[in-house]
Batch of 2 targets.
Target 1
Amino acid sequence: MAEQRHLVVGGGLAGLMTTIKICEAGGKVDLFSVVPVKRSHSVCAQGGINAAVNWKGEGDSPAAHFDDTIYGGDFLANQPPVKAMCDAGAAIIFLLDRMGVPFNRTPEGLLDFRRFGGTKHHRTAFAGATTGQQMLYALDEQVRRYEAQGQVRKFETWEFLGAILDDGGVCRGLTALDLRNMKVETFVGDTVALATGGPGIVFGRSTNSVVNTGTAASAAYQQGAFYANGEFIQVHPTAIPGEDKHRLISESVRGEGGRMWTVRDGKPWYFLEEMYPAYGNLVPRDIASRAVFKVVFEMGLGVDGENAVYLDVTHKDPEELTRRLGGVLEIYEKFKGADPRQVPMKVFPAMHYSMGGLWVDYDHMTNIPGLFAVGEVDYQYHGANRLGANSLLSCLFGGMIAGPKMLAYAKGVKRAAADAANAIVERERRRQEDVYERIYRMEGTENAYALWRELGEWMTQHVTVERYNKALKRTDDKIVELKDRWRRIGLNDRGRWLNQEVSFVKQLWNMLELARVITLGALARDESRGAHFKPEFPERDDARFLKTTKARWTSDGPTLSYEDVDVSMIKLRARKYDVDKSVSA
Amino acid sequence: MDPILLRVKRQARPDAEPYWEEFKIPYRPGHNVHSLLMEVQLRPVRHDGTPTTPVVWDASCLEEVCGSCTMFVNGQVRQACSALVDSLARPIVLEPMKKFPVVRDLAVDRSRMFESLKRVRAWVPIDGTYDLGPGPRLTEATQQFAYALSRCMTCGCCLEACPQYNDHSAFIGPAAIGQAVLKNLHPSGPLTKEERTAELMGVGGIVDCGNAQNCVLVCPKEVPLTRAIGDMGRQATVKFFRDLFRG
Ligand SMILES: Cc1cc2nc3c(=O)[nH]c(=O)nc-3n(C[C@H](O)[C@H](O)[C@H](O)COP(=O)(O)OP(=O)(O)OC[C@H]3O[C@@H](n4cnc5c(N)ncnc54)[C@H](O)[C@@H]3O)c2cc1C
Ligand code: SF4
Ligand code: SF4
Ligand code: FES
């Protein structure tokens, strides 16, 4: 039999783990990424990664982690894969430890753990305050080892454009753009995995890296892959608003004892501690973001009349802060010019994470045979709201599932005869080349970057913390208008060498397609669940909406259908954080 | 406030001649070099009114942790995303890094740095990704040193500043030496340690360092490069004598 070929798109944590798993079994991988993989967005993760090892004698367990995750996600996640992920937590952290991730230590030389939101346990392992960076580097090194052995070929500064589908709708490879010479190339493979991260840039400014446009997921969606739960967008309560991006101040700051407050009647008011006595500053992110909105917009209590509240660690020992949170506090110092050890930080909520993503089965395969999705780009593990430090875990766990499943799938693949296969590949190459040739000829008056800013403002204002049906409808109309104006873009750069404007124009179209999925998914879901909050429908409605939203692309916009959620393991109950959650069986 | 004058050294292709362009950008508080370049994307028109192409540069994280956006800002090699306009002298002058091939405008090709990491085998040769239990215990002090080395984001500032590193010398440069020391710290067996040290004893290795210490001064992540170079020097000496007496 001919040798298997696997194509992995994305070199963040999820893509690298997938690659390692395939290589470890002797497979070969072509790895694609728009940036050198070592510069992927995963480096931004600050706070840590969860695993219920119970090393602090608190009675923690994978079962408790499972329950926190399902409850935190407001019961929207299918339970079996979440349970498997929580059960694997300890093994994953030990693996990273063996790879040399410099996790913080206790005086005895063991791994140290801290607290994060939505749990009562010290469950989060961390490497200073740059955990994602340290983890990404460790995986990057393992992949470099396979690269040196000839098992991995890297295509860095290449952009995935689309899957190559045969007439039976089976994925046979991919097309990618060499961002240097701007040429479309085709790659044939038995499997393709998208590990392309989240879509933060659809919201203009977010806490995400600038490469997180969601363009790859959107391309797959436009080729028939279902996009699931797109409306579930996490807004992080504590970011520093900026001209270019909103920089995150990690939840670990509250995990280490940071307190949120504003001034009321001339005195500090610790609003989270008062509103949610059981969890205080460590309520989940959706709850904290809504509380900040309430304090700032409803009560008019923003600090100094600005859209801001305080996040305060000045009561903590400065040396201890540097050792455990140095990287985060440095960001505030560098970008705001004030030392958080001395003065409270001013923060405000910002778009942060997408719980939704490409629909996958428990093997991480999309509804397109041979096309897999893993990492933030899939929808599998976080339900209606992700708990802090669970994403890094889901990226690694997902990769550990996807890699072996890709190998297994490839074994059963029947390849087409060479000339039939060639015809399909050439057809897709021409389709993609045509797209770019049309972009190169654009001579209108609109500027692509200006359209993107407009999109970001609408999405941020109407499709984040509070959602009203009227505003959602208007936002969708706006997106349709922007798609129309997209056709009237005038190109400023017609060069055929590293033309960033040309690739952005294409990405923008994909962002607009995805924006409609997010907005219309929110419009259709008349309830409040996790991060999706409609003041007009403030209650969770399990009878109608205990369901996964699945968006399917049509040329007139997404059609939505709904799929039951597997809730066979943990019984449904109301989600509240003002009192201790009752532990279920 | 006066508009901000931005001078950018541009280059269409790796083999093309560089040229300068100037842009005038309305002042707003909170700008950094990255957001100025975003303004050029919105209105790619030169200061003299001639339309031009948007400036090309690399960026990803925007919080000085990925290393992408390294360039010269007012003559200093640093990250564009953490270069705050309010703390910069004007006009603001941007140039690409000088010791790496220019791809276009401010974007350069730093793949040599990743190749160097291969040369020193900067990885832990784990037995497998299976559940083999926890890793070795580490003292807090070792962890802190390892963490400091491990924050290197392959930005290349140290190579840019090092008088020994350039495109016609074999010297591997301080960043990769730091990573070799980091991996040698790991208790994963003496064999790979020997290999790494041997690589750095050869041509382009540790002896090429002139000990000018420029590297450590420009590193934005405060990676303890001089300590690492010192440690590697000692490890190399020990290995040299051991090999000698083994015959
Ligand atoms: C500021 C911040 C802090 C965070 N902190 C934490 C934390 O403490 N704990 C936690 O659990 N989670 C955290 N998260 C979330 C977590 O970092 C991400 O969800 C996770 O890193 C995503 O990893 P990934 O592998 O899915 O994708 P990414 O790391 O985003 O990688 C995506 C990859 O795909 C590539 N790519 C994208 N599009 C294309 C294309 N079209 N063609 C080719 N390649 C492409 C990119 O180049 C990149 O290599 C944080 C997120 C942010 C924004
Ligand atoms: S000490 Fe000097 S010569 Fe040695 S690596 Fe650093 S800058 Fe280069
Ligand atoms: S050692 Fe410092 S300056 Fe050198 S590449 Fe690493 S982070 Fe950059
Ligand atoms: S964009 Fe990552 S360091 Fe500047």
Note: Chain B is about 35% helix and 15% strand.
Target 2
Amino acid sequence: MAGIRFESVGKKYSNGFHAVKDLNLDIRDKEFLVLLGPSGCGKSTTLNMIAGLEEVSDGRLLFDDQMVNYMPPHRRDVAMVFQSYALYPHKTVFDNIAFGLQMRKVPREETARRVQDAADKLEISHLLDRRPSQLSGGQRQRVALGRAMVRNPAVFLMDEPLSNLDAALRISMRAEIKDLHHAMQTTFVYVTHDQAEALTLADRIVVMKDGVVQQIGTPDDIYERPQNTFVASFLGNPPINYIDGAVEVSDGETVSFVRGDLKLKFAGETARKLASSNGREIRLGIRAEDVDETRSSGEDSLIRGKVNSVLPVGSDQFLGFDFCGEELFFRVGKDLDHALGENVALSVDLSRLHVFDKASGASLIW
Amino acid sequence: MSDVPSSSTQVVDYRRRQRLARIAQRLIIFGGSILLAVYVIAPVTWLVSSSVQTEAEIVSVPPHWIPEEPTLRNFKAIFSATEEETVTYETRSGQDPAAGGFIPSTASSLLPAMANSLTVATLVVILNLLVAVPAAYSLAKIRTWGRNATVYFILITRVIPDIALVVPFFLVIRKLGMLDTIGSLVLTYLAVTVPFSVFILLQYFEGLPDELDKAARVDGCSRFQALIRVFLPLSLPSLVAVVLFTFLTSWNEFLLALMFTQTEASQTLPILLAAFTSDFTISFSFINAAGVLAIIPPVIVAIIFERYIVSGLTAGAVKG
Ligand SMILES: Nc1ncnc2c1ncn2[C@@H]1O[C@H](COP(=O)(O)OP(=O)(O)OP(=O)(O)O)[C@@H](O)[C@H]1O
Ligand SMILES: [Mg+2]
């Protein structure tokens, strides 16, 4: 155990709402899979179906080739960490962590040993006698992790476990969760709407929207090769910039993007894929960090505009940039000094352009 | 207060006024509490006091709050249930009502009636919990088709006044051959109390986070175990409310008991107490003694369970 397979799985709630549609997904053994998407896209629903907390309405859910559609949660070897932690208020920390083992009739000494082990690892051994109400948010979160850890489950499920923590703690807990995955050597399915968390933790990311999977891939795939504008926009800070325009093929080999005065020459593979699309209406995507001022690679890579706003963010700065009346955001080095209203030309990294169909938003190059 | 002299008389003035206001506030609260206490306690005090008075002393004006010649003969009559002193139609002329000193003919039924009342109330409480707890849990945490309709239906049964149900109940009970049995009372009291119990518990269970239920089930609990091991310990206050409510309701119920019971086999305390007032002769002191006995069990139940009605038991279940 345990590979998990979704075969055309759908979930309809009793009020008729279709929360997950035709989900096909193969979660590999020992993989760290992250479900990523905006609020209400069906991430928790998917996770709850794995846990058995929500029934599968259509299709089949398999744990290693065994169909588990109707298997109740207590028969599945899964552990789960909830966003609200859901600690048992009437039990001590020790009993909270031990409860899953007690329910599974693990011998008393064994239980005590495993609870102590987990508590040591999470540095909460001094809190074992307390009740959840006497703990800080971070401590509760650790207890919730401990409760799942001691079980040594085949599948470890986490539903936005870090979203109630403050920013600093969230980042340090990310590292701990990654370590935990290495140490436990089990399948992790992790739900978040935080792109940074997803990119840091995941072996593979599943991006969802309105109950439909948008893309499945490694963090690199998702970030570098987004398959549609939704995925491209969902990751990246500040978000990717779009410029609508058309493909222009001249001399049969120079393929460029044209919008008014702006002309950007496509490179390599991209150029080849668009070579037969002369005149096609497209939406060009430029990631905020894919511009540079210092580079001067010729006229066909420059985008000109007026500086609207300058937002320093410590390591570098965000530049609000007015291009033909559209607001674009770029991330540039903080040594660049620009006055508001100044006209600047930025050099675009031509090898990293994203091209989408204007109507459907689907990528034309990946 | 500091004894640093204030620089301005205005400040002193303000402080004095504030202190006066605080004292006045306390006086008002204190006075109000006394009034409320008197209002609640006085009838009970008179009940207890008059139960050990003679009939003559009870009717004296002004009333004696503290009996001058306390007597336990009323209680003795109830517990020993001796025949010699009781008044029957045949013997009543031998006694002088004005001097008091008579005991109603049904005095000996009092303890059996009390036993009936206790049996009925206890059964109703236990069965209520057995039915209402799982019902409320499933309505609160298992989302199914028809769930809302069920809740509304349960609530609607509660707005029908009992008096409208008496005749249908009577017909059913008679058809079942349960007239003059304790079972008839248990059955009908359940019909009256279970919806309300479900309602109380439903409110409470809905307030407990869904994720707690999910956590328990992922930790290895079946639905039933999640209910027993996680929800019940957390819902103690509402369970106590249900126990008190159902116990008191069945202990005090009159109308249905009047309809269904005829003999000592099933008569409950309220029926018997009411019967005393319609005996050939009325002994107020005896009725009050019986009344004292009637309030003892509810008081004991209230004292046992009162301390479990604590709030804040669920604090810390979820974030915050
Ligand atoms: N019990 C339910 N009955 C009906 N609709 C539900 C139920 N639970 C969730 N939904 C709906 O299903 C959709 C998906 O819910 P889900 O909880 O999976 O979202 P999510 O991706 O986890 O969002 P979030 O990031 O806010 O937690 C939402 O639109 C929600 O309103
Ligand atoms: Mg969610």
Note: Chain A has a mean pLDDT of 91.
